[in-house]
Amino acid sequence: PLLLLHAALKEVKINNVILMGLDSAGKSTLLARLLTGQEMETSPTIGFNVGTLDLDKKTSLTVWDVGGQKSMRPNWRYFLDDCKALVFVVDSTDRVRMHEAQKVLKKVLCDEKLRGIPLMVLANKKDLPDSMTIREISNQLDLDSHNERLWEVQACSALKGLGLQQAFISVHKMIKKS
């Protein structure tokens, strides 16, 4: 019976995915849209939100949305235990804060708990005029310097629900590869 339990537990792998990024990047809107399929009013996250995203009958991801305000960032490290993928959300229209996002991302990726953990960067708010291209965001965040890590950048719109399902299917594929 113990062997069966162990086999069953291996089948039910919990895939914790951490959603991080600067405040106002759209993390909570993104999570709400993913979980409900609806556009929802959200407010700044104090602490975290969590939900389970079912990709198919056998695959689900537990997605943790962690508040992005400066005062919250020192607490991010407490969410990294058992993290299988990091999804870093940026506001693709906010050119002014891209350098801050780059510094914050670099600092998070230095954490030992994230060694070898795949990174998905979501360029949110692509439905708005003047949003940056994937290449611009990749350059601004200096993603090429993370060549020891599996990473990807995808455009999305949390508000409109564009690109979200595809992005999280990619996240799951990255988890399986790593």
TrEMBL record:
Pfam hit, one: Arf
SUPFAM superfamilies for this protein: P-loop containing nucleoside triphosphate hydrolases (SSF52540)
Binding residue positions for Mg(2+): S28, T45
Coiled coil: none
Residue sites binding GTP per the record: G21, L22, D23, S24, A25, G26, K27, S28, G68, N124, K125, K126, D127
GO molecular function, one term: GTPase activity
Keyword tags: GTP-binding, Lipoprotein, Magnesium, Metal-binding, Myristate, Nucleotide-binding
Family: Belongs to the small GTPase superfamily. Arf family.
Function field: May play a role in apoptosis. May act as a tumor suppressor.
Protein's name according to its UniProt entry: ADP-ribosylation factor-like protein 11
